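[retry 2/3] Sodium-and chloride-dependent glycine transporter 1: previous attempt timed out, resubmitting with same input.
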Amino acid sequence: LAERKGLLNNMSMFEQAVPLDENRGQWSKKLDYILSMVGYSVGLSNIWRFPYLCYQNGGGVGWATIVITLMVSTYFNVIIAYSLMFFFESLTMKALPWSLCGNWWNTENCLDYNNASIYESYMRYRNRVLNISSGIDNMGGLVNHLVPCLFASWLITATCLIKGVKSSGKVVYFTAIFPYVLLTILLVRGVTLEGATTGIMYYVKPNFTRLVEPRVWSDAAFQVFFSLGPGWGGLITMGSYNRFNNNCLRDSYILPMIMELTSFFAGFVVFSVIGFMAHVTGKRIEEVVAEGPGLAFVTYPEVVSRMPMSQLWAALFFFMVLTVGVDSVGGMYLLHLVDQYCAFLTVVIICFIELISFAWIYGAERILSDFEFMIGKSLSPLWPVFWRFATTAVVVAIFFVSVFQYSAELKMGDDYRYPAWSIALGWCISCSSLVLIFIYMIWKLYDTPGETLQQPTKRWGPANPTIRMEWEAYKNTAKYKQTLKQRLHKFYQGSPLQKYRERMSRTAV
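[retry 2/3] Sodium-and chloride-dependent glycine transporter 1: success.
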């Protein structure tokens, strides 16, 4: 390990010995990777899902991940299509379409306040943008104005990714930083609105009585899984483009901190506007919060409509949604269905299988040794304990809590209940990715005779031939073969806990 660390310290020597993989490509700079990870984790869920959960609660695995990511990416591009429509209309129309009543999609309850309507944004989103039908039973035809927007959103996605990390690594310099600039501007305007303090206090003042409810913990876990992205495959894919000796331990600290701070920051923006809307309408905050994507397309438009040069700020906001982020009249019902059944419980199961595969079958000690070989320094033996016991227990608890609070009835908003056949469809969607795990497992057991469950195949290991030779030699060292018990004993020797116990023993004598 000391020799390995010395080699890593001499980076110029290491880079000459281990050339870049020109065929596959690698991140040209460390910042490219960090910003890509931020852009991957900080997205639409931080803008709409986290603030809504705060209101609501008081303040084969590889193939399976591909399938579940494919499912979610389809409806996320639908949301990006919505933002494209808002973006173009903000630029091309003389006045913001949601700032006044009197349009064909308004109802008689449309409310004007100082030449700006409070619920016009909601009615326009529902009746004009979505052109929503009566339910999932009535899927209807295509929404003509959303078809080109959806096509454009897929075209933009393809353009950003067409050259792999060479193109996406440059795009994220803008797409990962611009949202923070605009959210700051929206916050400055939001806190100056009348009633904003009430909304912010509702946000930051926790309701501790809700902590005994299983749904609170389930929703919190949902947000973490959805934002950080474990079990989706994206983290693994982007991490694979790093140099072999990338300090992934440091990255695992940076990314969650940025994600959580962003969600917390976005919550101030949302609740300042919600407080204003509650003040104007004379209603409680609970009565003005929109659920799901509606939060981005109902609440946020209200604050930009009250800013100077509102069309400019509206265009910038929806451009921001575009950067972070079933075009039929029943598409929103299908989007909500996939979101509920595809995006959480399946990912929890995939993460559990990954934990069992690596921490228990491959071995937590092996993982720790592999990490030490990669980054060139010793790690705490507590990591295997976390992987094997703490993390596994948490994931299992999340699964059972989710099952415990599961309701066979699925609703969208307060006025629509999904029919039984759509619930069955949701479960089929949820299980479709899991089936691949067992199919692939059976096939690999048949295809690789003679291999035990705990013995990796011969292809397992670093792809680079030079590093692989070092790794093969490292596997024969005593350091690599240390058991978890030996590591913990060494960690205990000279630790504050040992000194404390020795001191207590002398005192007792």
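[retry 2/3] Sodium-and chloride-dependent glycine transporter 1: Confidence is low (pLDDT under 50) at residues 3-19, 113-118, 326-330.
[retry 2/3] clearing retry counter.
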